[in-house]
Structure formats: C-alpha cells, structure tokens
Amino acid sequence: MDLNADLGESFGSWNMGDDAAMFRLVTSANVACGFHAGDPVTMLDSCRAAFELDVTVGAHVGYRDLAGFGRRSLDMSFDELFGDVLYQLGALDGVAHAVGASVDYVKPHGALYNRLVHDAEQASAVVAAIQAYDPGLPILGLPGSQLLIQAKEAGHPVFVEAIVDRAYKADGTLVPRSEAGAVLHDVDSIVERAVRLATKGEVVAVDGTVVQVRPDSLCIHGDTPGAVEMAAGVRAGLEAAGVQLESFA
C-alpha cells in the first residue's frame, strides 16, 4: 500500500505543515506546483527531500488560486485549463530533473480534484494536458471519477486513492469541507480507518453505509492540524497489520 501526502505547500515566508517530518513517513508526495500553493524554492526543497529519502514525487496540479488555496472551483475554458496543467507539470518536472528526481504521477488538488469527479469537460482538458506532456504518466484520483475514466481510456495507468482524514458520503465522494465533520482529527479512528481500507478495501460513510473503495494509495493531508501524528500513527498501524508500504508509481 502506498501512503501519500500533499506537501510542498508553503509559499514565500508563509509555512504550511511540517514537510521535513512528513517526508520521512510517506512513500509518495503530491508536491504543489506553484498555482494553488508552493513556489520555486519550496518545489526545489521538496524534490531534494523526496530524492534523498526515496519518496516518489507526484505533480499536485490545481486551479490558479493562491488566495483560496485551490479550494474554490473555477470555470475555465478547455485551453485555459489545458495550459495551466501543462505549465505546472513542466515547472515541477524541470525542478525535479535538476536535483536527480522525477515526476512519476499526477494528482489534482482541492476543488479541481472534486470537480473532476463529475465534470467531463474539465477532466478532458486535464487528461489531454497530461497526455501531451507524457502519455505514460500515471494518474491518481477518486474511484469512478471522470478523471480516471478518461485517463484509462487515453491509455494512462490509473490508480485509486482513499483519503483517511476526510469523511465520505454514501456515493463514495467526499463530504464538502463546508460541512461539519468533513475533516477528521481523531488519530485512533483515522488509523482504524486506514487499516480497514488497506486490508478490506472499504470505508464507512457518514450515514453508516459501507463503501467499497479498494485503494492503491492512502492520503493524509499535510496541512491538517496534527498531520505528523496522524501519518506516524497510520504508518505504524499499517505495518502492525502486516501491510507493506511502497509507492504505487
């Protein structure tokens, strides 16, 4: 099982999360590409850390929305979104290449991630950009999403993730952050959820429904308060359950 986290989200003098600790706990890092968060120095530091610790780098592409941390959905034309995704891939891959690392998969961020579950037009723009940049680049996302459906049709390797610190609805989508209880904080329950996902491929939704997920990767948000404690607990819990941790990409 892969364990991923959204990292490299600091910007200038503003720090987000404890990347130094998180890089030592995960097997894959979704590194911000400068649009929703991150900057060239942060990308450089993130790629160096990933290379030194043998952590796989993924491009965490998002809407051009630094002020909203990429969590506001934007209406964009095909070419606008195509260009923005292509720009982000090139930027992070160039930085990674300079320090001996590489971008080995793509995962959308925030509002873009959620929109690509149902928005076929935006999904087509994102997939087309990834296809134009590297036809064989793996894509990580929510099961059943338009993103993964179209990526698979285009010939990309696709991988499913489950997010252990977010609440789920009965249809397998995430409870919006605007709703109470959308973000989970209790470490013990998060660890229990992660182990159940890894060993049984299922998660309990907010209404009690058992949702089948079968993830290739488990995600912990690096910006969630207590993220390091959560990640350490999840890693220890998975290892205690006999789950081998390795990158999917």
Automatic annotation (TrEMBL):
UniProt entry keywords in alphabetical sequence: ATP-binding, Hydrolase, Nucleotide-binding
Catalytic activity, EC: 3.5.2.9
Top-level taxonomic group: Bacteria
Enzyme class: hydrolase
Reactions the enzyme catalyzes: 5-oxo-L-proline + ATP + 2 H2O = L-glutamate + ADP + phosphate + H(+)
Keyword Transmembrane helix recorded: no
Pfam families in the cross-refs: LamB_YcsF
Protein family per UniProt: Belongs to the LamB/PxpA family.
Record note on quaternary structure: Forms a complex composed of PxpA, PxpB and PxpC.
Function statement: Catalyzes the cleavage of 5-oxoproline to form L-glutamate coupled to the hydrolysis of ATP to ADP and inorganic phosphate.
Protein name from the UniProt record: 5-oxoprolinase subunit A
Source organism: Pseudarthrobacter humi
Organism taxonomic ancestry: Bacteria, Bacillati, Actinomycetota, Actinomycetes, Micrococcales
